[in-house]
Write a structure and sequence with these properties.
The chain is of the alpha+beta class and 158 residues long. It contains 1 helix and 11 strands, in the order αβββββββββββ. The strands form 3 sheets. A 4-stranded antiparallel beta sheet has the order 2-3-4-9, with no helix packed on it. A 4-stranded antiparallel beta sheet has the order 5-6-7-8, with no helix packed on it. The structure holds FE2/S2 (inorganic) cluster (FES). Residues 97, 99-100, 102, 115, 117-120, 131-133 line the site of FE2/S2 (inorganic) cluster (FES).
Length: 158
């Protein structure tokens, strides 16, 4: 009789543990990220292209790949940016729409960026001119080339 009760108690505890797993997992992850918050970008610089390859009037689409450290994990990141030069300064805009994150495309004939998802439109400076996006396209800081002819560098957010 005692063996039977022990088995029942054990099975009850085991089933309770299994049922609680979906609740325990996220709580543990939240605790770990609180104790060791993941860097947003990890900081650092990424060489892009030389200044003379960035057009002055039209934005140039640039695909970017790098690895960032997120807590104990390494994550491959892929981004598409639009680069445009104003003299020696470079404007780098994210291609991610600030509404729900769809990729915007540059429309050469209209000289603006259009989002195919819900009709968001941004001007050449990345400011919203139509549609639901709540704010301008994100901008990335660009560092000048270290030497003449060297690539400009994208400063990652920390
Ligand atoms: S995601 Fe771009 S307008 Fe909605």
């Amino acid at each position: 009789m005692n063996d039977r009760n022990d088995r029942r108690t054990f099975l009850g505890a085991f089933v309770s543990f299994l049922l609680a797993l979906p609740l325990i997992g996220p709580a543990l992850l939240a605790l770990v990220s609180f104790v060791s918050p993941a860097p947003r970008e990890g900081g650092g610089e990424i060489p892009l292209i030389p200044l003379d390859q960035i057009p002055e009037g039209e934005p140039k689409r640039v695909r970017l790949q790098y690895v960032r450290q997120v807590g104990p994990y390494r994550e491959e990141v892929e981004k598409v940016l639009y680069l445009r030069r104003k003299g020696d300064e470079v404007l780098a805009l994210s291609s991610e729409c600030t509404h729900l994150g769809c990729p915007v495309r540059y429309k050469k004939d209209k000289k603006h960026f259009a989002c195919p998802c819900h009709g968001g439109v941004f001007n050449l400076e990345g400011e919203r001119i139509e549609g639901p996006p709540p704010r301008p396209l994100d901008r990335y800081p660009i560092l000048p080339p270290e030497t003449k002819g060297a690539p400009v560098r994208l400063q990652l957010k920390v």
